[in-house]
Automatic annotation (TrEMBL):
<dbReference type="InterPro" id="IPR006843">
    <property type="entry name" value="PAP/fibrillin_dom"/>
</dbReference>
<protein>
    <recommendedName>
        <fullName>Plastid lipid-associated protein/fibrillin conserved domain-containing protein</fullName>
    </recommendedName>
</protein>
<keyword id="KW-0934">Plastid</keyword>
<feature type="domain" description="Plastid lipid-associated protein/fibrillin conserved">
    <location>
        <begin position="37"/>
        <end position="214"/>
    </location>
</feature>
<dbReference type="GO" id="GO:0009536">
    <property type="term" value="C:plastid"/>
</dbReference>
<dbReference type="Pfam" id="PF04755">
    <property type="entry name" value="PAP_fibrillin"/>
</dbReference>
Amino acid sequence: MSLLFVISPLHRVGRWEQKARSRCARPSTRVAISPRERLLELCQKTGRGVAASLEDKAQAEEVVARLIADKDVDDGEDIARPLDSALFRGKWDLRYSTEDTLVGLMRSGLPPLLSKAEAVYQILEGGMAEATSAVSHGLIENVIEFPRPQGTLRLVVKVDFHAENEGTRCRFVFNATELKFPGKSIRLPFALGRGFFDALYFDRQRRIDRDRSGWLNVSNININLNE
């Protein structure tokens, strides 16, 4: 066997290794995404939580924890006391949820009566929270729209805005549940009692809430009622 035949490939391998090392040494052009962008990716990937795996849910919790931890050191977009802000009042489109009932309606509706839900949003309006223990009242209307047959499920709650949990807790009392079809409205004997949710994060464009059962909800502003 010719010695040159053995050495020449080794020389070529050496050149390939040098090129590979050179490529690896180049600085990466990939830009790390922010927690907000990562959360948006998860919302889109999971179809508002409908297709969320256990891993997706764990990642969402990690991102939310990071957003909360970074409140005091980020770009100042978040609002520390959401219930004090007029920007909190408005129409909010759901982007992600872990709430079993809501996810079920988005996944399959109420067969055979209703197809899977499409638009899911919340309208929040009413008085402003005070920096004291005074109560300020308002209303929340939770709306779920079904395309077939065309119908809307509305759940209305009366809200007491309390300056507790550092201005993040919203207490409510269930008021009415209604299923509306064109030309017909059916009052349902559902959703009785009281509850609350905590606004974990609010930055004018998005809200992250957790209710008393631990469900996580992420919403984006659609219409601000105070503009």
